[in-house]
């Protein structure tokens, strides 16, 4: 998917140094001392929606431009119409997409990225590239793990 957006292969990322792991650990400890409440965390709230199974695919599809419902469904064929409808409503509710009704008879509707939705395409593309680069290693790790049983 990310190749469609950029066409540039990425070099394989290096492993994070142990010092970064320690600093991340200490950051969590600092947040907890400051009264960090995971149930009210804005990052968790956003990730719950953006991390949804279909959200990234819908947003990346809309990055190419406005799409009608049927075009979105063809682009993501394994999503049910009901789930696509619900996902589009959730994305509209979060302000990531706009539902545009054209004043025709019968009315036609398309979906397009809102400015907030446009702002997430860069991070999503980075994540998609990371997944593309690291997928073979993840597949191998899964196979090794599954072979242990």
UniProtKB/TrEMBL annotation:
Highest taxon of source: Bacteria
One Gene Ontology MF term: DNA binding
Keywords: DNA-binding, Transcription, Transcription regulation
InterPro entries assigned: HTH_HxlR (IPR002577), WH-like_DNA-bd_sf (IPR036388), WH_DNA-bd_sf (IPR036390)
Domain HTH hxlR-type intervals: 41-139
Gene3D superfamilies in the cross-refs: Winged helix-like DNA-binding domain superfamily/Winged helix DNA-binding domain (1.10.10.10)
Pfam family, one: HxlR
Chain residue ranges for the region called Disordered: 1-24
Name of the featured protein: DNA-binding HxlR family transcriptional regulator
Organism encoding this protein: Nitrospirillum iridis
Lineage: Bacteria, Pseudomonadati, Pseudomonadota, Alphaproteobacteria, Rhodospirillales
